[in-house]
Structure formats: structure tokens, C-alpha cells
Amino acid sequence: MGSYIENGSSLVDTYRLISTMYQIGQWWQENKISVADEHLATATCDYIIARLQFTVNKEKLPSKRALLFCVEGEGHYIGLKMLASLLEKYKWEVGNLGANLPLSYAINSIEKRRPEVVGISISQVHLLPSLKQYINEIESLTYSPTALVGGEVIATL
């Protein structure tokens, strides 16, 4: 892992890990690996992203704002962390609210911070009705941020 970072890998290179994390999730669903193995893979990916974030030049003032979170009940946050790192690389001010954010807190944060972009992550099919509620609430705001939705369940639609 240290050699991955020391050999000049960048944040953009890290996004190659997305397909690996999808494979890890698939193996977990098929009972080929344990939840402990899945958590270890997630922690390793998280560590790599955190280490590479130190390579981001944050000298210039951010030009745009983004607010990122997972819907309530969603615990898979690595994709959000990757997106946050990439946006920061391109001088965005990013608020990453992480996993499992209740709707009322999401809306309050959006109204308070007024980001240009709201990024929502969802990986579980049974949470799609919740996603619709989040989108409806965002669309009813007094201003119109762009909503981006990502995650494994979106990739399979």
C-alpha cells in the first residue's frame, strides 16, 4: 500500500479501486468473504484516499460548493469520499456529511450551506423510495442546486 502512494499514484488513479470495491461487495453477497474481510477492504481504500488527500493543493480559494451524503440507512461511503477528494483537487469546497444521514438533517444542511451541487450516494435497492423523498425535498427548496446521485444501485439501473 505504501508503494502505491510512494510510486506517484494520484487521487485520479485511486478511482480504479471502484471496480475492486464492487467486486468485494459481490463476493460478500455470495458469501465468498466475511463482513470482516469487506470492512478491511473498505478501511484500506479509505486509508489510501486519506493519504492521497494530502497531495491536493488547497492554496487557491474554492470556486464552488458541494455537499455530499448517503441517504438514511446507507452505510457505504467510500464513493462519496472519492468524489470529495476529486472535487477538492479541482478547488471545490466540499462538505462530506458521510453515511446514514436522515432527510431532515440533509435538507437543513443544504439550506444552510447552499451548495451548487448536492451529491447523494445509494447502493441498496430497498432504499430507492427514500432516495425519491430526498430528491423531492431538494426540488422543493427555494433555490435549485444540481443533484447528483451515484452508487452501486444507480450503476445497475
From TrEMBL:
**Domain of life of the organism encoding this protein:** Bacteria
- GO molecular function list: cobalamin binding; metal ion binding
> Gene3D superfamilies under this entry?
Cobalamin-binding domain, Methionine synthase domain
Start and end of every B12-binding domain?
63-157
InterPro entries hit by this protein: Cbl-bd_cap, Cobalamin-bd, Cobalamin-bd_sf, Meth_synthase_dom
Which PROSITE patterns does the record cross-reference, listed alphabetically?
Answer: B12_BINDING (PS51332)
Task: List the Pfam families hit by this protein, alphabetically.
Answer: B12-binding (PF02310), B12-binding_2 (PF02607)
What protein name does the entry list? B12-binding domain-containing protein
Source organism per entry reads Priestia veravalensis
